[in-house]
Write a structure and sequence with these properties.
The structure holds two protein chains of two kinds. By secondary structure, chain A is an alpha/beta fold. In chain A, β17, α19 and β18 form a beta-alpha-beta unit. Chain B is globular, with a radius of gyration of 16 Å. The chains are: A alpha/beta, B alpha/beta. At the A-B interface, β8, α11, α14 and β19 of A face α1, β2, α2, α3 and α4 of B.
Chain lengths: 604, 196
């Protein structure tokens, strides 16, 4: 039976069919749906880990115990997990182990567009790349076989365009194997990476990658599709689809394993085409490997000066981008591009992502904006506090960075009081060690934990504060107050994020405290199903509205300017979109003229 | 069988993704290879959302280049204008006659384009613009969230796929308690096209 699946769903399916028993991950766009989907299959264990490194350790532990295992993460998650990635390459395993990295060309939802194929080469781990969902499914099983045959973890690299594209997939049955070990291994020479053992291991992994390069020569997912011989394209991943679309006549060497390369296969292909070009997204990873082999790669009319030839290294490719680059390089005539009309179009208002109506983070940002203090952000919905009119995030680098950055500015002697904001799940991920560091080193920064009771931005995943596991089991519900007190913070305030005065008073107390402090602003994400049921749109009394726009400056999408004019100033009055308002009452509390009705006034 | 490239665009929360799921599955059941690529940013709601859907005997690229979209389905007027460059000259636009004011207009200095401008620019690319009053119809049916399926109904009247396939796919895709609503929304949509 063929069904439409995204590559994320297909990887989950592939893992299930190939007998993966344990999967652990931390949510991160564009990878999140892999584990959400895998967790729904029967006879598997799946969990949300507290971060990517923990998730990878868990998968490694399962593979040491002789069970096929998988972890998945967004590309930057592999930075967090890198330590585990490298030791797993050194130790090898007892059963198949696959690490899935979902890279994000174009940075649709990321801070960079790092190309994680480099990690494969860095750690001497083979890298597989599918070109559609069907192949994504197949390559999970193939990766597990390779993993067991060569005693190595395997990196399966996806990109956003595969992760979030549905294509047809032929479904198969699950094949399970008994554990490959009867008893957990006691094999320190293999598994204890002290220097004496690790030194013996290094030549073994160098030999392993040499053997894998030999294996790649006959690997069926590396294949040549012969066409005309004037142009030969080496390609991989989703770029293969663009190659077929834009150069239907060309010969194509499609690599399903992009590290290590089948060197002889590449040489033979290059020898049989007039011009060899490399079509890959992001970095010139294949191109540089191929050039290092001494094979000539066509780089366009200009002499090659290093880096990437013909196709852009920045951003996501698509057929339009590929075609345009090919025209510039003289591979296609200018007439190959569809004419794009020059329209008499005005500049259009952007529609940036915004904090949703009813978002509990909004009240905190209104208060932080009032304080004019420097605010260190973090990764989550609350990063959107950066945008006008809230404009209250001044740095944001990666998961867990804000608390350390605030402390660094503080101990550097910067005179302003530094504030870090971090979400509940991100605090578990990498915030906890950073806060402990603030306390231990006598810092004074203020940490605001914006606890909306869910991992929201990636689409509502459970975490240690929700009381539920990924597979729906009841579990402990970690409370932040005792947790941060246990980390040594004495000044701790817990408030309802919807209570503007409580947020203001608690933040003031934190500023007055001569030492580290934590403000926990608690309120469920307004989009949770149980919260949606309580939505009640509010209304503005136009008689009382004086068009001061205090409500509009909260940046709530439910508030807008009406057609009605306030005579005295000639400004438009405010009104509420009943389709968007959830009734959080933030604007009602802020309105200086009592013009916005509270929930209990809505019956009047 | 004719190959068709669709671009669906709207605002997060409008049901653009559901509509593109249905459209892709309808393509499969009508015998095409079909692919659907979602392009959406960070926010759960409020941002621009687009979906590329392609029907062909064999589809390679999941993304459609500018100037190669056959049918642009816009759930919001400004989004129709934003994505009109994707349409091949003379292609078809199905647009919901509805505006959602972006935050950059409400609290920034930006201006929402007037109807005259929107119609004029769309007309520069094609004479085939079909306006649908999706919100009014959905309101009449008692749930504005069904506007996306009204638009699908309108779209279906332009394509050569049996109505039964559409209804079967929609019924499978929406929660059981909304099946009747969506069936009505689809049927109303089929008769709802107001020509530009």
């Amino acid at each position: 039976m063929k069904v439409l699946l995204s590559a994320n769903e297909a990887v989950a399916r592939g893992g299930w069919e190939a007998g993966v028993e344990v999967a652990s991950a931390y949510p991160g766009t564009p990878s999140t749906e892999i584990l959400e989907s895998f967790a729904r299959y029967p006879d598997v264990y799946a969990e949300w880990a507290t971060n990517e490194k923990v998730a990878m350790d868990v998968a490694i532990g399962a593979a040491y115990a002789g069970r096929r295992a998988l972890t998945c993460m967004k590309h930057v998650g592999l930075n967090v997990a890198a330590d585990a990635f490298f030791y797993a390459s050194m130790t090898g395993l007892e059963a198949g182990l696959v690490f899935v990295s979902a890279d994000d060309p174009q940075m649709h939802s990321s801070q960079n567009e790092q190309d994680n194929r480099h990690y494969a080469k860095f750690a001497r781990v083979p890298c597989l790349e599918p070109s559609d969902s069907q192949e994504a499914k197949e390559l999970v099983g193939v990766a597990l076989e390779i993993s067991e045959q060569f005693d190595t973890p395997v990196l399966l690299r996806l990109t956003t365009r595969l992760c979030h594209t549905d294509t047809l997939v032929e479904l198969g049955e699950r094949v399970t194997k008994p554990p490959t070990v009867e008893k957990y291994p006691r094999n320190p020479a293999k598994y204890v990476m002290v220097p004496g053992n690790a030194r013996k291991k290094h030549p073994i992994i160098e030999e392993r990658i040499r053997q894998l390069a030999e294996f790649a020569e006959t690997f069926p997912h590396n294949r040549i599709e012969w066409g005309q011989r004037d142009l030969g394209i080496v390609t991989c991943g989703v770029a293969y689809q663009y190659a077929k679309e834009v150069f239907p006549e060309a010969s194509v060497l499609r690599l399903g394993m992009t590290y290590p390369l089948p060197r002889q296969m590449v040489r033979d292909f290059a020898a049989q085409v007039e011009r060899l070009v490399v079509l890959e997204e992001l970095d010139p990873f294949l191109e540089e490997e191929i050039r290092l082999m001494g094979v000539e790669v066509y780089s366009g009319p200009e002499p090659y000066e290093g880096g990437k030839s013909i196709f852009p290294a920045c951003g996501e490719l698509d057929p339009g981008v590929v075609r345009q680059a090919a025209i510039t390089a003289g591979l296609l005539p200018p007439s190959a591009a569809a004419p794009v009309p020059q329209l008499e179009k005005r500049e259009l208002p952007a529609r940036p992502p915004v904090l949703c109506p009813g978002c509990p983070h909004r009240s905190v940002f209104v208060e932080l904006r009032r304080s004019k203090l420097p605010i260190q952000g973090d990764i989550g919905c609350y990063t959107l506090g950066l945008l006008p009119p809230l404009s209250s995030i001044h740095t944001c680098g990666c998961m867990g960075a804000g608390i350390g950055v605030a402390h660094g500015a503080d101990v550097a002697g910067d005179e302003e009081r530094h504030v870090a904001v971090i979400g509940d799940s991100t605090f578990f991920h990498t915030g906890m060690p950073a806060l402990l560091n603030v306390v231990y080193n006598r810092g004074k920064s203020i940490t605001v934990i914006m606890d909306n009771r869910i991992t929201a931005m990636t689409g509502h995943q459970d975490n240690p504060s929700t009381g539920k596991t990924l597979q729906g089991q009841e579990t402990v519900k970690i409370d932040f107050e005792p947790l941060v007190r246990a980390l040594g913070v004495e000044e701790v305030h817990v408030v309802d994020a919807y209570d503007v005065k409580a947020v203001r008073d608690a933040f003031k107390a934190c500023r007055q405290h001569d030492g580290p402090s934590v403000l926990i602003t608690r309120r469920e994400c307004a989009l949770l199903p149980e919260v949606r049921r309580t939505w009640l749109p509010l209304r503005i009394d136009p008689e009382k509205c004086v068009a001061c726009w205090t409500c509009i400056r909260t940046g709530c999408p439910a508030l807008r300017k009406s057609e009605e004019i306030f005579e005295k100033t000639g400004r438009q009055k405010a009104e509420i979109d009943p389709l968007l308002c959830t009734g959080c009452e933030l604007c009602a509390q802020l309105c200086p003229n009592g013009a916005i009705l509270f929930r209990d006034q809505m019956g009047e | 069988m004719n190959n068709v490239n669709f671009l669906l665009c709207g605002v997060g929360g409008q049901g653009t993704i559901l509509a593109s799921d249905v459209l892709t599955q309808v393509g499969v059941q009508a015998g095409y290879d079909a692919k659907k690529a979602e392009v959406h940013g960070m926010a759960q709601r409020g941002g621009s959302v687009t979906s590329h859907v392609r029907w062909a005997e064999k589809v390679y690229s999941p993304l459609i280049a500018k100037g190669e979209v056959d049918v642009l389905v816009a759930f919001e007027k400004l989004e129709a204008l934003r994505h009109i460059e994707f349409l091949r000259p003379g292609g078809t636009v199905v647009v919901n006659d509805h505006e959602i004011i972006p935050i950059t207009v409400t609290s920034g200095g930006a201006e929402y384009p007037d109807d005259e401008h929107i119609r004029a620019v769309l007309a520069e690319v094609t004479g085939d613009v079909r306006w649908v009053d999706g919100m009014t119809i959905a309101e009449e049916l008692g749930n504005v969230r069904a506007a996306n399926v009204v638009l699908l109904g309108a779209l279906s009247s332009l394509l050569d796929v049996p109505e039964s396939i559409w209804l079967e796919v929609i019924e499978k895709r929406v929660p059981a308690r909304y099946v009747e609503l969506n069936r009505s929304a689809f049927r109303r949509g089929r008769e709802a096209i107001v020509s530009g």
